[in-house]
Amino acid sequence: MLCKKCKNIILQIGLLKKCNNKKCAIVYWDYKVRKLNLLEEGIFIKTLEDAKIKKHNELNKTANKTHFVYIIKLKKNPKGYMYYRGMTGLHPYERYLNHIRGYKSNKMVKKYHSYLLKFEGLYSYDEAKIREQTIKNDLPGPSYGN
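Structure (tokenized):
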């Protein structure tokens, strides 16, 4: 299979797909996740385990560095946004899956998500809040977030 962005070979772990090209490195969930009942906690956890993603409480976090900042590329949508930026105390892949399943999700991201472009961290909560706002200057098109 080929990457959605750079057309390089992807690595698939469970239903999670990662681009092998280090310059690209996007991540996205296989379309099959939409067919799963991810609101059922057992199925959600098994999907994360199959993709070898540690739950947020298993991550090695320092006392005050607990958050990530992430960017999700959006498909063409009526509002014209190209990116969604957010912050999370979860692993960014888990947070992205939460958007897809509609759990504490942004409606635009649930409907128009394409792939996880990148994430940064670990930050303190305050650092993550600031970085989430400043990261929009790094993006080549319109974005929104909290």
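The chain has a mean pLDDT of 90. The longest strand covers residues 113-123.
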